[in-house]
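Morning!

As promised:
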Amino acid sequence: MTQERAEGSSLGKENGLDPEKRNGAEKPDHSGNGSGKSGRSGEDADKRSPGTARDADGRTEEEFLAAYDVGDYERPSVAADMVIFTVAGDKEANYRKLPKRSLRVLLIRRGGHPYLGSWALPGGFVRPNETADQAAARELREETGVDRVYLEQLHTFSDVGRDPRTWVMSCAYMALVDSRGLDVRAGDDADRAAWFELTYRLQGDSRERLGGGVVHTRRYELRLTSFGAGSGEAEARRGNGADGTESTDEADAIELTAIVERRLTRTNGASTDEYRIADNDGLAFDHAKMIAMAIERLRMRVERDELALHLMPERFTLTQLQQVYEAILDRELLKAAFRRKAEPLVEKTDEYTEHAGHRPSRLYRRSREEWGDYR
Amino acid sequence: MTQERAEGSSLGKENGLDPEKRNGAEKPDHSGNGSGKSGRSGEDADKRSPGTARDADGRTEEEFLAAYDVGDYERPSVAADMVIFTVAGDKEANYRKLPKRSLRVLLIRRGGHPYLGSWALPGGFVRPNETADQAAARELREETGVDRVYLEQLHTFSDVGRDPRTWVMSCAYMALVDSRGLDVRAGDDADRAAWFELTYRLQGDSRERLGGGVVHTRRYELRLTSFGAGSGEAEARRGNGADGTESTDEADAIELTAIVERRLTRTNGASTDEYRIADNDGLAFDHAKMIAMAIERLRMRVERDELALHLMPERFTLTQLQQVYEAILDRELLKAAFRRKAEPLVEKTDEYTEHAGHRPSRLYRRSREEWGDYR
DNA sequence: GAAATAGTGTCTGTTAGACATTATTTC
DNA sequence: GAAATAATGTCTAACAGACACTATTTC
């Protein structure tokens, strides 16, 4: 096959599509400006010649583009799916104790086939005149009403048959939403949206040797629990107190579980890192895999890039910050060491918590400079 | 908008396409098995009900899928582009000195519009019955003849207008090929393929405050140099000696440069991390951005996950390994510290280098167990 | 005063950086 | 013996883990 990109030579390019079908296919002005960022933050600069060079058929670029035909080979739909994380705390029975905080993810119950009744990540199609990032931001806004958050592209999933209807790839994103009142939007599906508490734990670990190579498999259990989902908008909209706590109602808990295997294969020279859904109960499509990859990315970024600060409200105590770290990493941290490391990332304020049943704690805010330098 | 995925409700779904147009759109059997990995390593497990549930229109899943219509909204083409890295050394004038090693990337000169005459990453379209990973592996094989390598998905690029012809997204991959003889394939474009030495250096750094936020911009200079490209297949196929060195011919050097800006914006809560091509001379499309992201990912993985071992041949000296680290990270490392850290990753052999003009050096091989545990 | 959290001090073992020293081969 | 690299030793500063201890508020 040829190395040419997007000329479709190997997939047939002669049969034209009805021009009607192409009305969304933008052909921007490219006289002197190549791949623009369009809309967002400035255009990319480019020095290539302004279209005077002629190709093998003697055409200038302008002539080439005017005659260009998209061809009728198959194209996939591309969706943007969102793994929206937050950390929130439950109300504690004992008025003196601090609430336990847990990592949560937003899911939506499917009302139609396929995976009818299963829970899925919010998402939607990327439209012709937007980037995948913009589609993700749009979905997030529509789903949670939140606009200014941390958003990161995770991975593009393209397994054959991952959507039984048609060829659909999905570009997965992770979003971090802080733990103040989250107003899950009153879209036409808001009654089917719910926050799920999430655990993702290593269940087992196996190493296998085979002819000069090693296969290392790790099994993780992904468990998602929602309290009071299905009770409609009220649940999702109730939101949290200013301290990010909410009461839970154990009556109608929903529990979804999946086993995700991560398999590292290393034979001579080759190396693959595959995720596989070994068991899945209640999650739609390959979303268990997306959530698993999102958590692993989140943990990595929290440890390396202090990403947890994105989950904090304006003012917070260092213990709250530590709890967020602990909820995400799913392990306990030592207080003294944690405070040493957190110290350069935050700034003292003169405010303190009050009436907490114990010694008040100083409130901090994110430091303006010292974090977020993602290497 | 609705949260429904892939039903196209917001983009119109009533107008059917000619069935001819859909012959590539697989509709796998989903009676009891959801999103399969198809082909590769096992099917994903799934417990959802086997299609007896009925949706709002009273249809079972089977009925739904039979009636399902892909709709005629616009779909993008999706390409897989490859940033193929290797490290190779030039012949040194002084017989005693060790050759300098440099990081290289494979580029292909475009023979058609757009970007006629510019250099591009090898790549090709993802086909209907393969994953993006498979498309990337296929391209790599076609381009270099190499099959068993390290391959990692990097990022999906979807800027509007990034391809002037039509709507094309690109899923970028990074591949690591070891430094033994690389046989760049005799495809119809092989005469236009060449390895480019690569440097990627921080040029400047600026911080700017604006209303409660900080913008941190880093400018990088990407410089690609090829010696003797354009001399046809011979150049690309000549390959390297067993020690990964080759002679260079300074006569017809090609130099491409680009300035890539990475901009970290942090306003209250929000946070973005954008790459922008500020200047571009000789690279097609947004490929300067892809190469920049690939190097940053590579550096991160080399530091954290010892990925450089993938670039080594069967037997190598610790100094060679250190040189590969240094070429990738673009900084010098201390020998003693390096050897301490490398020691658990490699295994001694009883072989030594010979006739090198100085003390022989022990040869090592990759350890079977102790590396590649990508966290 | 009991219960709880807030906040600090300090010991210790590990590790990265820096530099120095010795060893060995080829020509 | 000169030139080069190979290989190891050791000092130090920084840092993470571990644990103990003091402080302060609410009820």
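Chain A has two domains: 1-75, 77-298.

Hope this helps with the figure draft.
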